[in-house]
Amino acid sequence: MAPTVPQPRAPFEQSRAPFEQSGPVRQWYENELGWATAPGPGPVRLLTGLRFDVLELPAEAGFAALRHLGPKAPVALRGETMRLLVSAGSAEELPGLLDWLEWGHIPLGLTAVGAGGRIDAPTPPGWSGSRGAAVWLRPPEPGCEVEPTLPALPSLPGVGPLSEVGGGGTALHSDPAVGSGLVRLVDTAATHCHRVRLRRRSRQPLAFS
User: Fold this and answer.
1) Which of 29, 72, 139, 209 lies most in the core, judged by the most C-beta atoms within 10 Å?
2) SS3 category, 45
């Protein structure tokens, strides 16, 4: 009986399934940053609503809004979508904040992922990732608390979250912190999202009947 010749093995990089490569990535997020990841095989996913929420917007608008973001606030990019890390609880406040800023009636493509959500974990800085994977534009710093770097609503004595404030705008208008943090970031992001939307509409060919 002729000996069986084993099939040639694929190169190591190609033979590893995505979930086999996720182990070091998961360890980096959990051990270096202390961030929670979703259990199970497959690409690593970060849980939102615990230490941070995420604003998602078109990358074109996001790049224009970055100058209004603190230099240490983490920012990620996945394809044509930019993800800005903001304080936990911001996703719940976003609809009311957009209404208060008079953007609520306009489709902007500005959304938020908060409690119970998850996002693809960007490739750790300096690591090689797969094509099309999320990447860090401004990576978080290992060993540093991320919360102090994140945009948040101003703290108003005796005032609850924006969603609990009747009439919304009066309390925020009276506070000198307006124009900074989450309020300014959302207003700036909404402005640039609207501009991107108008530019894209102007590029569309006119339809004639």
Assistant:
1) 29
2) strand
Tell me the residue type at 119. I
Residue with tokens 């970060």: 46
HSE toward the beta carbon, residue 102, CA cutoff 13 A: 1
Q: What residue spans define the domains of the chain? A: 21-152+162-202
d(CA 61, CA 130): 25
3-state helix vs strand vs coil in the chain, percent to 5 = 35, 15, 50
C-alpha span between 92 and 83 (Å, rounded): 16
Q: What phi, psi does 100 have (nearest 5°)? A: -60, -35
Residues present in the chain in total = 209
Report CA Rg, the chain.
21
The C-alpha atoms of residue 62 and residue 81 are separated, in whole angstroms, by 8
Q: Are 36 and 45 in contact (CB under 8 A)?
A: no
Q: Tens digit of pLDDT for each residue in 103-140?
A: 999 999 999 999 999 999 999 999 988 888 999 999 99
Residue closest to 55 by CA, chosen among 106, 14, 108: 108
Which pTM was predicted? 0.77
